[in-house]
Amino acid sequence: MNTEKKRMSLPIQILIGLALGVIVGLLLQNNPEIADNFIKPFGTIFLNLIKLIIVPLVFSSLLVGVADLDDAAKIGKIGLKTFVYFLFTTSIALIIGLVVANVLNVGAGFTIPIEDIAYEAKEAPKFIDTLVGIVPSNPLKSIVEGEMLQIIVFALILGAGLLAVGDLGKPVLNFFNGIAEAMYKITNAIMKLAPIGVFGLMTPVIANNGPQVLLPLSKAILAVYLACALHVVLVYAPTVKLLGKMNVKQFFKGAFGPWLFAFTTSSSSGTLPVSMEAAENKLGVSKPIASFVLPLGATINMDGTAIYQGVCALFIAQVYGIDLSISQQLTIILTATLASVGTAGVPGSGMIMLAMVLQGVGLPVEGIALVAGVDRIFDMIRTSINVVGDLACSVIVAHSEGELDRSITLETIKAQEKAKHMSK
Ligand code: ASP
Predict the structure, then answer these.
(1) Distance between CA atoms of 100 and 311, rounded to whole angstroms?
(2) Which three-class secondary structure state does DSSP give residue 285?
């Protein structure tokens, strides 16, 4: 039997893992500890496997990517374009989030008495500290601790240095090229376990967040999901089409795998190996651009998180009966844009940064307690949108630099159509 041809595509396998996770999670609602103790470990092991390749993958592929770009001015140009796109889309995300939250009146009709709310907010890092922290003083420490922005800066500096020493730098670059390639291979192998991993991640989420927990927050959840969908339609689709000159359908086909992966893992950093693979092999983004834009995006570009922070700020204000003025809502746009930059690409960090947004407009930080219980439900959608935003940016920057390999995209589409035909 020809198993190669018959094998289901990975996103379908992941979807099956997801669906099983939902079903088993619903069945285990009365005993969530079974899900936590026996099923969650599979998800944790899977996530750990993915995480273990992130630092070597990002560092080595960015280092090699910088050397391939071969020109400091070009790196600066790419950096600027990336940054402008990130900031532009994040502020639009906030506007969409706030408009949807205002229209839906998210906090109206919320019934939990405010006196019951108690929440120890963890302190959000200050923006200036985040900025200063970008430059590492001890690069090995940054690598050991997985400080993504510092790793990016060090890779850029070392890559430029290796280029400057000419032939002497070549063996080092070859070495890291070998590591990067090996990491891609390992990613592919680990991804074979994704359906089990996703099952292990989803089951405890559903078992712990049953419908009865979700109901009172349904309006806020609906607002975040709706605003995220609108952001995709109003921002990513047109910018990919107009600025990246890519067929929107092709883009979403290529981005679907990473989207789904981010949705189930709630970690943009964890999704990096998957999105880098998809950007290169499905969207045709060159390796240097993908290895620059995507790790940077996974660290600082968080449109979904921005939407969530905007909606939740308004939600909390309404529940406390505080009327936010237009200028306060503008402050939310500003602080949440900064907060989303400072948000780490790991589960739950967007909620911690929400504290900064609430403080910025003088809202009670304890309000976070209202949304904390179901954070995972918010986290799944915001992370998946964060990742799609990074991919959109990589396509646009690659196109503008003439580094988009269009034959890859078309061939992928053709191959997919063919495979579909064969399975019929
Ligand atoms: N989990 C999100 C991410 O990794 C960050 C957040 O919590 O908003 O992109």
Answers:
(1) 8
(2) strand
**d(CA 294, ligand 1 centre) in Å:** 14
List, for residues 251-263, the tens digit of each pLDDT value.
998 999 999 999 9
Position in ligand 1 atom list of the atom nearest CA 266? 1
> What is the per-residue pLDDT across 207-234, written as a single tens digit (0 to 9) for each?
887 777 677 788 899 999 999 999 999 9
Output 175-179 pairs: Cβ under 8 A, ≥24 positions apart.
Answer: 176/59, 176/60, 176/63, 176/64, 177/60, 177/64, 179/56, 179/60
Torsion angle of C-alpha atoms 90, 93, 95, 98, degrees rounded to 10: -120
User: Candidates 259, 371, 377, 386: which one to mutate for ligand 1, based on the most atoms within 8 Å of Cβ?
Assistant: 386
- The SS3 assignment for 420 reads helix
Q: Is the dihedral of CA 308, 257, 174, 288 positive or negative?
A: negative
Residues within 6 Å of ligand 1 by CB = 266-268, 302, 305, 343, 345-350, 379, 382-383, 386
Domains and CATH numbers, the chain: 2-422 (1.10.3860.10)
Ligand 1 centroid from CA 349, angstroms: 6
Task: Tell me how many helices (H) and strands (E) the chain has.
Answer: 22, 0
